[in-house]
Amino acid sequence: MSLDIDSALQLRRNQSLTSIIRRELEQMIERGELSAGERLNENALAAKLGVSRGPIREACRGLEQSGLVNVVVNRGVFIRALDGREAAELYEIRAALYGLAGRLLAPIVTDEQVAILTGYVEEMDAAMAAGDLNSFYPGNLRFHEAIVEFGGNARLAAECAAIHREMHLLRRRTLDMPGRMMTSNDEHRAILERIAARDPAGAEAALEEHVLISRNALFGPLGHYPDT
Amino acid sequence: MSLDIDSALQLRRNQSLTSIIRRELEQMIERGELSAGERLNENALAAKLGVSRGPIREACRGLEQSGLVNVVVNRGVFIRALDGREAAELYEIRAALYGLAGRLLAPIVTDEQVAILTGYVEEMDAAMAAGDLNSFYPGNLRFHEAIVEFGGNARLAAECAAIHREMHLLRRRTLDMPGRMMTSNDEHRAILERIAARDPAGAEAALEEHVLISRNALFGPLGHYPDT
DNA sequence: CTTTTGCCGATTGTCAACAGTTTGAGATTC
DNA sequence: GAATCTCAAACTGTTGACAATCGGCAAAAG
Asked: Nucleotides of chain C within 7 Å of a protein C-beta?
């Protein structure tokens, strides 16, 4: 009982309407309920959420800074549309950051953490065997999240999460295409193996390669910066 | 005359009060007029800038997202203070990003760009010879900016600029300490030499090392994540 | 003397209204 | 019939006001 009150107060304590709305909008983008290029109507949103326009505008300024929306003066805020070039640039950065995460993690990883990562890979194996893409995806997500978390650089983890959110702005929604599921998990095994071997350079290379292969699967292996 | 009007309109066209205020606050932080931990008073700022609190609050939400301020509900916004651990984490990320920039640039750099970079290094040499730290600093800044710009990944350049802004939150303000000026420019020469040789791996390594040496100069070479 | 309690000024969170801009439809002209 | 002009509706930018909350100080209780 008192625990409920405490947690409720704790929630209230660092959640203004603005932050609640920002999170809500982020999730709407992640779920695809707001698609790229779409315009946000402040009045409509305010009415829908039962608040005034002030907090909505504040939330949108936060989203603007994190790159999820574009704001055009006197015209409104638009869900950002990643073109091919921007997505490719993002993948490049992501590859470098995941590589760094692997390099940080390999020397300090614990046996327990290796076990956790192994669990995720096996989950994905099971999903793969069942041909179930919907349960493959969360395993994939947690595998990558865990690597950056365990690496010990909290800021790096936050940055990777932000980039991952931004990836949802890509029009072609298949972040990991069905056909890539099995080869993808082979790569996961390779990454895990290098981490478990406490091999920083190997883990770095495996993670970088994994991200860049994903990128090439989306854009084709040739174009450096595709134009759409 | 009409040019003045046009440029004024052009300014007005994609600059809301919010964006002007955000830039102003960023510059105040960069110039050190707002020091870490300090609290921003919305009313005072609004009066000082001659606007209402709305745009101020919106600007602060943007600054929050880019990590320049902390917002505590019902207490206000505080200029963020980087502790040692956060700064070290930032340096690690920065090293990886600059390394990526060097790797991208080396294969595609033009002779003209090499000449520009060489010019910056010589500027720094001159400043060094004159013992003039104040003219060393901007050369240093432009050298690093140019490398990420020329690399061709616009998003990477933006990310590096954001991290650089964030570095100004460090309490120990000497981003490059006086004593490091000469050794620092030796490293710049090494970086430039690897880029001019069109050597991606070498440029990457030289840039990473350069950033990590800076980090160690600030924190000492030993501690992985210092606590203050 | 220390601790608790209640109040008050200051500050933030939120809202509703006003002012200026954009947009699109219909009228008007050539 | 096509292009241009006019104008009103819709929307965003900004403001000032109201409500809720926090921190500190003084008085009362122990």
From this structure: 11-17, 20-23
Single-letter residue type at A97: L
Asked if residue A13 keeps its beta carbon closer than 7 A to nucleic acid strand D, the reply is yes
Cβ partners under 8 Å of residue A51, min gap 6: A17, A21
- Which chain A residue lies closest to B68 (C-alpha atoms)? A65
Q: What burial letters (b/e) apply to B151-189, b meaning 16+ CB within 10 Å?
A: bbbebbbebbeebbbbbbbbeeeeebeeebbeebbebbe
| Confidence (pTM) | 0.90
Strand, coil or helix: A220? coil
Selection from B172, B161, B196, B61 nearest residue A62 by Cα? B61
> Could you check: is the Cβ of residue A14 within 7 Å of any atom of nucleic acid strand D?
no
Nucleotide whose C1' lies closest to the alpha carbon of residue B9 = C21
Stated in angstroms, how far is A43 CA from D9 C1'?
15
**What digits encode the pLDDT tens for the residues B38-96?**
999 999 999 999 999 999 999 999 999 999 999 999 999 999 999 889 999 999 999 99
pLDDT in tens, B135-154: 888 899 999 999 999 999 99
| Contact of A149 with A108, CB cutoff 8 Å | no
Spatial neighbors of B226 by CB under 8 A, at least 6 apart, are B84, B85, B88, B219, B220
Question: What is the tens place of the pLDDT at every residue in B9-42?
Answer: 445 566 889 999 999 999 999 888 898 899 999 9
